[in-house]
C-alpha cells in the first residue's frame, strides 16, 4: 500500500450548534495503520468531529478526502461502506438481541447469510483478535467491556479501514484496557487506522504515535504523544495561560492524600443482603455486609459484571430488598422503600448509565434538575417554582463548570463529560446524607475530574457518607478512605487505603483471596 496516500484527510471542517462553534476550520490527516489521538477538554469538539467523519453529523463547511478522493458523506451506512467504523461512548447495540443478531442487523440486504454460519464467522474473527465474545448471549447480559469488544468486532466484520473510538477506556478496568490495547495494536498492524479519543493521557502516550489537540473547536496543536509527557499534553489542551507544568498536572490527578481519622457513626448499612438478579445472566448478591460512616468515602472496586449493577439497584431502591432491615439509613430500615422515598430521606444517586438512567435525554437541564432535586424547595403546593428552579440549575452549571451552561437546552446536547459534570453537580448540590456514585468521573477531563474530586471531599468533610463504585483504581486510591472489592456477587473485606495496595485490591477483584 502506498503509505503516502492518507487514509483520511479533513480540511477546514466547521460545524456550529445554536450558541456554540463545535468545530472551527479543523484540519486532520490520518495515515494507514496509524493510531491517532484526538485530544481536548470536555466540549472541545472531539465527538462532533468524529461524528462528522462517520457521516452522522453534516459539517457546515469543509472537505473530507478518503484515500485521496474527495467524498461527500451523508450517512453512517455510506461511511461504513467506505470502511469507516465507529464505537461510541454510549454503545449502539440492541440489548435484547444476541451478539450475532446485532451484527446481522448491520448486514446489507444483498448479503447472503444465515445465523449459524454468521456465528461461526464471528467466533473465528473474535478469536483471531482475542476479543472473547460469546456470540449467542443477549447483549444486556454482557459486561461493559464485552459490549465494547462486540462493537469493535462488528467494525472488524465490516472490514473497517478506519476505526473511530470515542473514549473507549472510560469505564474499563486496567486489565480490560490492556486487552483492548493489544487488540488495537494488532488491528493497526494489519493496516487499519484508528482515531482514538481519551482523557487518560498516559494511555494516549502509550498507544498513539500522533495527536491532534482541539481547544474550543479549533486545532491548537499536533504532536507525537510519545515525545510528550501527560503534563505537557494537558497544558496543550488547557492552554498555557492556565496549565502549568508537571506540578500542576500532579495536583490535578493526585486527589487529596487521606489522613487516617476516627470513624463517625454509621450512616449507611447493608446487612446480609442476598438478592437474586432480575436478569437471568446477572449476578446474585450474596451476604453483602457493608458500612459507610459519616464523613467517609468508601470505594468498591471490581471488574464489571460482578454484581455492581445489582448492588446499585438494591441501594438506590430500583429493586426492593426482601427485608427492610437489609439496608439501614442511619437507624431507619429502608430496604423496602422505593427510589423517591430514599431520596426524600437524604440519599442521592449517580447511576452507571448516564443517558439511560442519569437524565431524560430530551428533557432540558432545568427539567432534569427538577427530577431529582424537587424536594429542595423547588416545588410548592404542587407548583414548580420556576425562578428558584432556574437559579438552582444555573448554580449547578456554574459550580461544576458545565459548558455550555444553557439550562433550557436538552441534556442530550451536552458533550459526554459535561453531562457527567451536570449529573454529579445535581446530586452533590443536594447536600445528601449519603451519596452513592457509580463511575463519578466517567469521560470527564483532567481538570473537571479534579473539581469533582474536590466536591466529593468537601461533602465528605461536611459529614456526608459517600459510596463510590468504580473500576478505576487510580480514582479509588486518590479519593477513598476505605476500599474493598466485589467479586461474583460477594464483597471482600474493607481496608483503609493506607493499609492496602493496588496489588491486593487487584487480587480481590480477581477473586484470588
Ligand atoms: N446536538 C447538539 N446540539 C447542541 N449542541 C451540541 C450538540 N452536540 C454537541 N454540541 C455542543 O458542541 C460542543 C462540542 O461537543 P462535543 O461533544 O463534540 O465535545 P467533546 O470534545 O467530545 O467533549 P467530551 O470530552 O465531554 O465528550 C459542546 O459545547 C456541545 O454542547
TrEMBL record:
Keywords: ATP-binding, Nucleotide-binding. One of its GO terms (molecular function) is ATP hydrolysis activity. SMART domains: AAA. CDD domains: ABC_Carb_Monos_I (cd03216), ABC_Carb_Monos_II (cd03215). Pfam families: ABC_tran. Residues 8-241, 268-513 form the ABC transporter domain. InterPro entries: AAA+_ATPase, ABC_carbohydrate_import_ATPase, ABC_transporter-like_ATP-bd, ABC_transporter-like_CS, P-loop_NTPase. The keyword Chaperone does not apply. Gene3D superfamilies: P-loop containing nucleotide triphosphate hydrolases (3.40.50.300). PANTHER family: CARBOHYDRATE TRANSPORT ATP-BINDING PROTEIN MG119-RELATED, GUANOSINE IMPORT ATP-BINDING PROTEIN NUPO. This is ABC transporter ATP-binding protein.
Amino acid at each position: 500500500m502506498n503509505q503516502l496516500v492518507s487514509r483520511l484527510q479533513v480540511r477546514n471542517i466547521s460545524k456550529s450548534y445554536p450558541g456554540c462553534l463545535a468545530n472551527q476550520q479543523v484540519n486532520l490527516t490520518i495515515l494507514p495503520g496509524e493510531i491517532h489521538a484526538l485530544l481536548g477538554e470536555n466540549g472541545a469538539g472531539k465527538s462532533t468531529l468524529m461524528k462528522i467523519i462517520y457521516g452522522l453529523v453534516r459539517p457546515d463547511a469543509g472537505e473530507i478526502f478518503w484515500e485521496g478522493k474527495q467524498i461527500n458523506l451523508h450517512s453512517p451506512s455510506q461511511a461504513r461502506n467506505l470502511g469507516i467504523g465507529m464505537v461510541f461512548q454510549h454503545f449502539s447495540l440492541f440489548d435484547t438481541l444476541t451478539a450475532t443478531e446485532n451484527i446481522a442487523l448491520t448486514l446489507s440486504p444483498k448479503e447472503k447469510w444465515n445465523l449459524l454460519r454468521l456465528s461461526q464467522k464471528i467466533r473465528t474473527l473474535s478469536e483471531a483478535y482475542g476479543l472473547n465474545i460469546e456470540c449467542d448471549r443477549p447483549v444486556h447480559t454482557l459486561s461493559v467491556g464485552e459490549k465494547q469488544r462486540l462493537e469493535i468486532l462488528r467494525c472488524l466484520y465490516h472490514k473497517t479501514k478506519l476505526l473511530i473510538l470515542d473514549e473507549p477506556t472510560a469505564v474499563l478496568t486496567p486489565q480490560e484496557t490492556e486487552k483492548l490495547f493489544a487488540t488495537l495494536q494488532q488491528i493497526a498492524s494489519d493496516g487499519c487506522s484508528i482515531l482514538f479519543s481519551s482523557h487518560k493521557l498516559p494511555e494516549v502516550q502509550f498507544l498513539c504515535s500522533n495527536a491532534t489537540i482541539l481547544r474550543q473547536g479549533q486545532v491548537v496543536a499536533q504532536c507525537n504523544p510519545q515525545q510528550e509527557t501527560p503534563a505537557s499534553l494537558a497544558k496543550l489542551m488547557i492552554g498555557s495561560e492556565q496549565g502549568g507544568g508537571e506540578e500542576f498536572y500532579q495536583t490535578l490527578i493526585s486527589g487529596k492524600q487521606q489522613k487516617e481519622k476516627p470513624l463517625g457513626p454509621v450512616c449507611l448499612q447493608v446487612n446480609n443482603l442476598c438478592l437474586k438478579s432480575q436478569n437471568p445472566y446477572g449476578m446474585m448478591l450474596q451476604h453483602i455486609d457493608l458500612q459507610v460512616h459519616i464523613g467517609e468515602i468508601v470505594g468498591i472496586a471490581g471488574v464489571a459484571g460482578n454484581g455492581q449493577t445489582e448492588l446499585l439497584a438494591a441501594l438506590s431502591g430500583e429493586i426492593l430488598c426482601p427485608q427492610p432491615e437489609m439496608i439501614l439509613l442511619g437507624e431507619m430500615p429502608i430496604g423496602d422503600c422505593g427510589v423517591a422515598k430514599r431520596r426524600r430521606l437524604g440519599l442521592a444517586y449517580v447511576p452507571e448509565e448516564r443517558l439511560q438512567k442519569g437524565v431524560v435525554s430530551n428533557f432540558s437541564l432545568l427539567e432534569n434538575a427538577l427530577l431529582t432535586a424537587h424536594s429542595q424547595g423547588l416545588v410548592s403546593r404542587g407548583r414548580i417554582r420556576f425562578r428558584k428552579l432556574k437559579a438552582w440549575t444555573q448554580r449547578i452549571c456554574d459550580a461544576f463548570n458545565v459548558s455550555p451552561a444553557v439550562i433550557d437546552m436538552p441534556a442530550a446536547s451536552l458533550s459526554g463529560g459535561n453531562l457527567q459534570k451536570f449529573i454529579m453537580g445535581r446530586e452533590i448540590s443536594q447536600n445528601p446524607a449519603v451519596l452513592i456514585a457509580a463511575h463519578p468521573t466517567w469521560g470527564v477531563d483532567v481538570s473537571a475530574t479534579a473539581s469533582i474530586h474536590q466536591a466529593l471531599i468537601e461533602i465528605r468533610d461536611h459529614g456526608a457518607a459517600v459510596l463510590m463504585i468504580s473500576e478505576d483504581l487510580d480514582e479509588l486510591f486518590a479519593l477513598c478512605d476505605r476500599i474493598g472489592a466485589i467479586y461474583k456477587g460477594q464483597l471482600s473485606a474493607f481496608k483503609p487505603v493506607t493499609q492496602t495496595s493496588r496489588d491486593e485490591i487487584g487480587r480481590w477483584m480477581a477473586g484470588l483471596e
